[in-house]
Amino acid sequence: MEPCHRTVMNKKFIASIACIAVACMILVVALYINTFGTNRSLEHATWGMFGDYFGGILNPVFALGAFLGVLWSLDMQTKQLKQLSLDKQGGEILVVVKDIDTRIGELLMTSVGLIGQDDLFIHHMVSESERGASTLKNSDSYIKFVSTAKQSGTLIEASIRELRNQIIHMQNFLARYPQVSSDSYAPIVEYYINKTRRIIPMLHEIERLPNSVFDFFMTERARKNSASVPRNTHRQPQNIPQPMRNGYE
């Protein structure tokens, strides 16, 4: 739709310029007739004087218009080049973000133990964190998971540390994605913010995330439906999304 819209705008712009040019010529002729009358003449000198008058007024006007047109064209080309550069940068960032997102999904499938004969994975602990398992003290598996994740050298601790690093990298690249405006992100960035935000409370309880990372995912603008972070955090978000049904998604 955008190329068609630009074509229509270009046609309207050209038509407007043509109308202005014709209006200028009519105005000059009308001014000449009003000043010198409409006496017909077959003398070359008279027509030469009319040509000098006509061209002397319109030539500077058209020259100025042509100069302004060149400046406008250069400005448009500069904006287009800048936009192409931003689009390229955004595309490169998205490639990295998708790779990080895939890695996060893999880490969330790390086993953290068993309940009966059923495996528990990190993404189950994310769901437990979302419903306030630590605060309510009603989830022994979550409390044990947090305790184990804080013990250096365990498999769970290594996975959580890697998950934490990936979240930090995710924030770093999402923050560099070109913004739609000064106070809003592109929809694709909002998607990854909303998707990743659900992991933040659990990670923040195990080990504090940098303030810039926590604020990026849990600010009021980005967390319209988020919930409370565990009570040992420095800020308390108000609403957390409903527990995920299928892992990271």
TrEMBL record:
Biased composition (Polar residues): 225-241
Transmembrane segments: 12-33, 53-74
Keywords: Membrane, Transmembrane, Transmembrane helix
Region feature Disordered, mapped onto this chain: 225-249
Species for this entry: Bordetella bronchiseptica (strain ATCC BAA-588 / NCTC 13252 / RB50) (Alcaligenes bronchisepticus)
Protein name: Exported protein
PROSITE patterns the UniProt entry points to: PROKAR_LIPOPROTEIN
